[in-house]
Amino acid sequence: MTSVLPGDRIRRAGLPASRRSVRPDLLLFAMTLGAALVLALWWIDTPATINTWGEWLTDAGRITGLLAGYVIVLLLLLMARVPALERGIGADRLARWHSMGGRYTVSLSVAHTLLIIWGYAVTAHESLVTQTGALLTKYADVMMATVALGLLVMVAAVSMRAARARMRYETWYHLHFYTYLAIALSFSHEFATGVDFSTNQSARVAWSALYLAVAALLVWYRFVVPVRAMVRHRMVVSGVFAETPGIFSVQIAGRHLDELHAEAGQFFRWRFLTRDHWWQSHPYSLSAPPSDRLLRITVKALGDHSHDLSNVGKGTRVIAEGPYGALTQSRRTRRRVLLLAGGIGVTPLRALFETLPAGPGELTLLYRAAFEVDVVFRRELDTIAAARGARVIYLVGPQGGDADPFTGRRLATVVPGISEHDVYLCGPPRMMDAASAALRRVGVPRRNVHTESFEF
Amino acid sequence: MRRFVAVFVATVAGLVVLLSFKTAPTKTPPAAALGSATPGSPPVSSPPASSAPAVASSAEPVISSAAPASSAPAATATPTPTPTPTPTRTTAATPTPSKTSAKPAPSTPAPTTKTVTGASVVVSEGRREYGLITVQLTIVNSKITKAVASEPTADERSREIASFSIPVLDREVVSSQTAQIDAVSGATITSGAYAQSLQSAIDKAKA
Predict the structure, then answer these.
(1) CA gyration radius for chain A?
(2) Per-window interface: B 151-180 vs A, CB < 8 A
(3) Which of A391, A403, A456 is nearest to A434 (CA)?
């Protein structure tokens, strides 16, 4: 890959190492298989002699309890930042699955609790109140598990969109961490009171092994790897540049950055070690192809964190977790490529525009923005386009206006032969929905559209 | 919201399907199974088995007259169905009708009390285990007067179930005097293990 930018950037040569990645359907299959095994544990333990209402309720409570304990450890796995998962499934999809699975786990836990109380009460001919009291006071570790249930319900409540809109990200983040405490508190009752574990040692061993494996992955990829990277690469902020009003670039310098094997189109989760922001990490895409000494990100000042970032001092240490992201040249299937950028979604596409292998006339960048002030990198993009025979089209204006290419079949006239293109799409969710619909209308097959959502 | 409803319905459906595979047809009353290891099990207190045939032999009419004293328990049972009390009489009175007097027919002067402990049976549901049940019978004059069972104490749930079911089972044994007892609803597994231990206690008592 040759540099087209003036300046003394040292370009890394060679292709990135081929990396293992897990396909989404493969992961779904593995998770379903695990669920089947968990249900099989219940199956072989239960004789075919249930015939009272109380037994039905109790066994339904056992099934929901087993599933809840299983799904929750899967949720942790999804968030463990395992590179094979991040590469193969994508951070946005992992986050979506995590939030869907989170709602399911909390529902299962609530169902489990209610079914067990009811089933036990019916079987023992007790009232619900007496039975609840008995469970809380006389059954091993159930009190702790009840506290855990309360924590899970709390986390679910504050994670609802309506609640998150009203609270600071910091608050929500801290509250969400209580899920770890909930998992720890409820674990012992699974073995002490759960009939499928209390007398079955091999089941206990397998369950513990699953939890330990996921915990190990979490510790490794979310703690050990970033700390090692920090020591190895010693990244620091080497400059902050204003691009347009409201949009700025941060240049990060480090050592041995080629070892990261970062590619154009990918992003990192950045942790700037300032007093107020060291505990947060935020994802920002590389806005220029990485070199072995410099990385650049470009940020729009939208929230607390991004606004404060514009004032970050030179020399501030940075921990970068990654690289993540599947919007790379390895996804490409056709000769002609359209990079479709919306607003600040242009950042990863700006990097790809420079390095994606393509001959003259094969590469087009369509840059859609609502206001002229949002258009960033105009000079860089024009330079790259001229240097490699690529086309850049700026479409600035409100949605539905003359500049909007996503109405009707206008895309086909703006980009002739669009149905023969691979399309890389990145932007805010609403723009991406409109663009995806428009691409379908003009005949671009879904498998040729590669997307990464910015808000997850 | 739509997706949530779909997942909820799918989960409930899945639960119903799974549970239906483990549901026994309701017409197998567990009670019939209990104590039916040997169908029509022999009466509880008949220590000398050899004497049983002697009962059948109708030396009774003779004997009954000879030993009215010990026939008190006989009053409770007519000879034909369960010759429970009669054996004692027959053993006592080796039929010598001629000797109407003298020989004190009941050679057991005082009531024989014995305590029999049955085998300890594991209370298990499929592959889950909840502890042991051991039934102990107190037999006075070949009649069960008391049944006491140890409670499985592997966990709180077993204790709870035992606390309401075992007293009921104990009472049933005394009232039926056999191993034929009804299971307590909601304590099927416990009742089954109880019956097994009870049967072994009865077998020991007869031996």
Answers:
(1) 26
(2) 154-157, 160-161, 164
(3) A403
Distance, in angstroms, between A39 CA and closest chain B CA? Answer: 9
**Mean pLDDT, chain A, whole residue set:** 89
Is the CATH code 3.40.50.80 the one for domain A329-453? yes
The answer to whether residue A48 neighbours chain B at the CB level (below 8 Å) is yes
Contact A50 B127 (CB under 8 A): no
Label each residue of chain A as H, E or C.
Answer: CCCCCCCCCCCCCCCCCCCCCCCHHHHHHHHHHHHHHHHHHHHHHCCCCECCHHHHHHHHHHHHHHHHHHHHHHHHHHCCCCHHHHHHHCHHHHHHHHHHHHHHHHHHHHHHHHHHHHHHHHHHCCCHHHHHHHHHHHCCCHHHHHHHHHHHHHHHHHHCHHHHHHCCHHHHHHHHCHHHHHHHHHHHHHHHCCHHHHCCHHHHHHHHHHHHHHHHHHHHHHHHHHHHHHHHHCEEEEEEEEEECCEEEEEEECCCHHHHCCCCCCEEEEEECCCCCCCCCEEEEECCCCCCCEEEEEEECCCHHHHHHCCCCCCCEEEEEEEECCCCHHHCCCCEEEEEEEHHHHHHHHHHHHHCCCCCCCEEEEEEECCHHHCCCHHHHHHHHHHHCCEEEEEECCCCCCCCCCCCCHHHHHCCCHHHEEEEEEECHHHHHHHHHHHHHCCCCHHHEEEEECCC
Task: Please state the domain extents for chain A.
Answer: 24-225, 234-324, 329-453
Interchain contact A35–B (C-beta under 8 A): no
Cα B124 from Cα B66, distance rounded (Å): 52
Interface test with B, best of A125, A195, A197 (most B CBs within 10 A): A195
Q: Is B4 on the interface with A (CB under 8 A)?
A: yes
Q: Which of B148, B162, B92, B82 is nearest to B115 (CA)?
A: B148
A437 contact B CB<8A? no
Asked whether A223 and A319 are in contact (CB, 8 A), the reply is no
* B125 contacts chain A (CB < 8 A): yes
What is the residue extent of each domain of chain B? 45-109, 110-207
CATH class of the domain comprising A234-324: mainly beta
* Tokens 């699975």 found at: A101
User: Per-10-residue mean pLDDT for chain A, 456 residues long?
Assistant: 35 45 89 95 85 89 96 96 85 89 95 94 87 85 94 92 82 89 94 86 94 97 92 95 92 94 92 90 92 94 83 93 85 91 94 93 94 92 94 91 86 91 92 92 91 70
Residues of B in contact with A100 (CB under 8 A): 3
Min Cα distance B158 → chain A (Å) is: 10
Residues of chain B positioned with their CB less than 8 A from the CB of A143: none
Q: What fold does the segment set B110-207 form as a domain?
A: Sufe protein. Chain: A (3.90.1010)
> B126, A46: Cβ pair inside 8 Å?
yes
Tell me if A234-324 shares its fold with A329-453.
Answer: no
Q: Are the beta carbons of B164 and B68 closer than 8 angstroms?
A: no
Q: What pLDDT, in 10s, does the model give residues A296-355? A: 999 998 877 888 888 899 999 999 998 888 788 888 888 999 999 999 999 999 999 999
Residues of A in contact with B129 (CB under 8 A): 199
Q: Is ipTM > 0.85 here?
A: no
| Cβ contact A100:B138 at 8 Å | no
What average pLDDT does range B51-56 have in this prediction? Answer: 36
